[in-house]
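Forum > Structural Biology > Help requests

Title: Can anyone predict the 3D structure of UDP-glucose 4-epimerase?

Hi all, first post here. I have the sequence for UDP-glucose 4-epimerase but no way to get a structure on my laptop. I'd be grateful if someone could post the structure tokens.
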Amino acid sequence: MKALVTGAAGFIGSHLAEMLLAQGAEVVLVDDLSTGKRAHIDTLLARGRCEFHQVDIRDRAALEPCFAGVDQVFHLAGRADIVPSIDDPETYFSVNVQGTLNVLQSARRHGARRLVYAASSSCYGIPECYPTPETAPIAPEYPYALTKAMGEELVLHWGKVYHLPVVSLRLFNVYGPRSRTAGTYGAVFGVFLAQKLKGLPFTVVGDGEQSRDFTYVTDVARAFMMAGASDISGEIMNVGSGGHYKVNRLVDLLGGEKTYIPKRPGEPDCTFADTDKITRLLGWRAEVPLEQGVANMLACLDDWRDAPLWTPASIEQATKSWFDNLGAQS
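Reply #1:
Sure, ran it for you. Structure tokens for UDP-glucose 4-epimerase below:
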């Protein structure tokens, strides 16, 4: 089998590519290295049976030849994070929507047999139902969530009209080794780990009683593998841990003092995936409990030594546009 992974230098993409190689697949690695790490690519190339193309998915002319002879496509490339999407929605649209269109067209023209898309649970906005099923309303609160939902609509439509077998996986709060250590203010794990290294208190949003469906990265990569190997098509499936955990619980596991910063508009008090569908259709269940996942993160704590150090003051500045725009809707 020959598989192509977009976003292969990134957090989830590098884990997925590693699993594919371990299963004996030939893997085409595609990434523009705008946020992913070249070191991840070099590690994968050293294993053999793979090739790397440094390509922006918005450049269809450069992208399309990468798909020659590919059986399975795993589309994980995209722009993430909330604040940059509020500040620069056009870039998010061009990468997450136009880029997804280019991936779909390239896969279709080269006769790929299957495409699995990395969707986002942020499409649910502030859900009314917990655990949240795939049938919950789509209600994105910010441009990142909207563009990921639009990408999913394209994927499902191409599956219907052009008979390209597709699956969309809506990912919940993925964490684990190789998660981003640089860039804009974002995921709580990266913020907290850098703070722990410097002995600073953890900046807890609100009262810390909000809960998140923290899902370990190897469980997520395994869900992609199983979706790619299945004969299911046209389906959306949640990928979550099977539980949800308070941010205060995460702080207890990491060990350290806390300081509190204002709650942000447009964020749910809880994320919690209903995973009955993926269990029923694929037999997938998360295997890594939060306690083990946090221990794994602490074991590679030094990876965050050069990560940005976020303080209440710098977070306030970084999230100003978030409050200015989304706060006005409250």
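Residues 89-109 form the longest helix (21 residues). The mean pLDDT is 95.
Shout if anything looks off.
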